[in-house]
Amino acid sequence: MKRKMFKYITILLLMSLAIPTAMTAQDSLATATSNDSITAITVTTITETEGVLDTASTLDSGNTAWIIVATILVMLMTVPGLALFYGGLVRQKNVLSIIMQCLFITGVISILWISFGYSWVFGTDYMESDNALGAIIGGWDKVFLSSLTLDTLMEGVNIPEILFAVFQCMFAVITPALIIGAFAERIKFSGYVVFIILWSIIVYNPMAHWVWGGGWMQEMGAIDFAGGTVVHINAGISALVMAVMLGRRKGYRTIGHPFTPHNIPFVFIGTALLWLGWFGFNAGSGLAADGLAANAFLVTHLATCVAAVIWMTLEWILYKKPTIVGFCTGAVAGLVAITPAAGTVDVLGAFFIGGISALTCFVMVAYVKRKLKYDDSLDAFGVHGVGGIVGSILTGVFATQAITGADGAQGALYGDWNQLWIQTVATLASIAYSAILTAILFFIVNKTIGLRVSKEDEAVGLDISQHGELAYSENE
């Protein structure tokens, strides 16, 4: 019954991709007669007061080249970066399932994003028409990027908007991929497919619209330079909900210690690719090759180094040996925490955000998880959820006008306690929205298709039971 239900739901999801096409066709005449909308994020022409001369905006080749590179770097974070990082942490019998889940997300979320996701996040017709749905999504005016041309440029930075759409696509891809770390080694692939598609549409898109697409969080003044709320809190909280509702892996904690990673060199390579890709993630989010990008690059690297070294030191003191996995985990915690603050803090902020994130995430991973006995397999919540919360809140402390400019935001450390309050509200709202919607989606998908594999399939491993493949030959 559940197998038939899976087929029906999959067909409905695929049919939904055709809806934006039809709506685009219906709206094309109206769009043609009313001229292309000039939105807050695009530039078409500059008209002189006499109305005689229209001068087209000039594409900035330097900014464009940089964002192309940044887009490539962000894609590398998911495949192969995250696939190798998570893949190395699981047991040998489950490594291919991690890779397959990352590959699937890259493919299907990219299709959904270009089809209507970008329009839902950065469209403007609902907001401009005061449609009530504008509180949730931007609109349908950019489905399949139909209203964009090669000459449609982003205001202020003069890069093609189609490039911006692809850049943002990579954020939409990696966010659900982060959740994989919570339910690794025990999720049914058919249920995973439907859950991830629904989560990306219902949870990610509205959140991205609220923070980056002109929604209520952006209007409130919440700072999220590259994805503290949209990416890390969103994915991390959803990861915790999934881990708790799905239940612990067979044998978890009964062996006296967590399951041993099967390939630590994979973890190292994955971390190196994530670290490299994060420079595109953070430094690229200003959409320009300028001083702000350079500062984002600097504070990203510094916070990562501080967090990694502190995590390693804690392990060395408490467990007598520093580990590669520990250093890599600390580095990711620092990368996560600096993400929302990368465009607003200086070196001082980077030091403290890196240090505080390492301490907080270490306690969550090493003590709180063990005490509460939930099975967050690869610490998606402990690192991404907690690191995102720490970074989002501390942005309201360490933001400085030395980076944001004379009229820019500043944090509590520099006298503006209101910014800290705004960051707190945005953080709590993100936590609540992600938790509630994820729990609802889990319940629906689990009841209709099923999300947990059988005990037998879990014992033999997801590589064989879900994909019929082995990562390593029998004689190795």
Could you walk me through the main structural features you see in this protein, from its secondary elements to its overall organization?
The protein starts with a helix and ends in a 9-residue tail after the last helix. It is mostly helical. It is 67% helix and 2% strand. The strands form 2 sheets. It has a two-stranded antiparallel sheet with strand order 1-4. It is globular and about 60 Å long.
- Radius of gyration (CA) equals 22 Å
Number of strands: 4
CATH fold call: Ammonium transporter fold
Query: What best-fitting shape do the alpha-carbon axes yield?
Result: globular
Percentage beta strand: under 5%
Biggest sheet, spatial arrangement of strands: 1-4
Profile the largest sheet: 2 strands, antiparallel
Structural class: mainly alpha
Number of self-contained structural domains: 1
Low-confidence stretches: 14-55
Q: What is the helix fraction of residues, given as a range?
A: 55-70%
Distance between the termini: 39 Å
Reported CATH architecture: Orthogonal Bundle
Mean pLDDT reading: 89
What is the count of DSSP helices, taking H or I runs of 4+ residues?
Answer: 18
Instruction: Sketch the topology as an H/E string, one letter per element.
Output: HHEEEHHHEHHHHHHHHHHHHH
According to CATH, what is the class? Mainly Alpha
Fourth-level CATH superfamily: Ammonium transporter AmtB like domains
